[in-house]
Amino acid sequence: MTTLMTLTSLMSLFAAAGRAGKKSSASDVLASGPLLRHPQGQLALRKVRYVRRFFPELDDLVLKVGLTRRAAGFADLEGLTLWLNPRKLSLQTIAHELVHLLQGRGLVPGGERSCDVFALARDVSLVDAMPYYLEIPANLADREGWLRPGAARRLHDLAREAVARRSAGHRQYIRWFETEAQRITMPSARTSKPPARPQRLF
């Protein structure tokens, strides 16, 4: 989910944190006061720093991160800010929003479904939850949307192949991905282990 934010509104929201020197331990991430005060704000920032390691195209960006409760997350397409909901925040959500920043720079094809594909293809460790916009079998995840064991690797590999197809000139790479994803079979939910939580990476 994306939105365009004015520079004035961004400046006002982050001014208090900036004046107070509330910069994260990583100089490339600046958190808003509301996010820092959230009970899960520090965990959210650790997740952002982890995911960002896989986006070298944004190394020149001092990334601002704010708090939202309206959605899992959304991004400023001018490349300034991520707005994240720390509650049950997945690495996939963060990767999706960072891909939106790449779209804003013209580095990735536009659109939400394209954004999902490129996020899934970035690194397998970031594929922890169901993407929002692609048609993927519901049985690949538990009731809360966390992917079941084995699903992440399958989706990641398909996404990488889809991106490669797009680079080779295949315009229907998203449809191809969705078709192949429908063929993924998983063990019964009764016999499979619970999905690993992303917190273990931080």
Key phrases:
alpha/beta, five-stranded mixed β-sheet, 5 strands, disordered N terminus, 202 residues, single chain
Task: Write up this protein.
The protein has a 5-stranded mixed beta sheet with strand order 1-4-5-3-2, with helices on both faces. With 202 residues, the chain is of the alpha/beta class. The protein has one domain (2-201). The protein has helices at 7-19, 33-37, 41-52, 91-104, 112-122, 151-167, 173-181, and strands at 2-3, 29-31, 63-67, 73-76, 81-84. Helix 4 (91-104) crosses helix 5 (112-122). The protein is built from 7 helices and 5 strands.
List the helices and strands and how they pair.
Elements: E1 2-3, H1 7-19, E2 29-31, H2 33-37, H3 41-52, E3 63-67, E4 73-76, E5 81-84, H4 91-104, H5 112-122, H6 151-167, H7 173-181
Parallel strand pairs: 1-4, 2-3, 3-5
Antiparallel strand pairs: 4-5
Helix pairs in contact: 3-4, 4-5, 5-6, 6-7
Tell me which oligomeric state these chains represent.
single chain
**How many H/I helices?**
7
Stretches where pLDDT falls below 50 for ≥5 residues? 2-27
Physical arrangement of strands within the biggest beta sheet:
1-4-5-3-2
Q: Supply the number of structural domains.
A: 1
First-last Cα distance: 25 Å
Average of pLDDT: 84
Please indicate the percent range of residues in DSSP E strands (runs of 2 or more): 5-15%
**How would you sum up the major sheet?**
5 strands, mixed
> Helices and strands: which structural class?
alpha/beta
Rg, alpha carbons:
17 Å
Q: Kindly state the number of beta strands.
A: 5
Order of helices and strands: EHEHHEEEHHHH
Helix content: 40-55%
Tertiary shape: globular
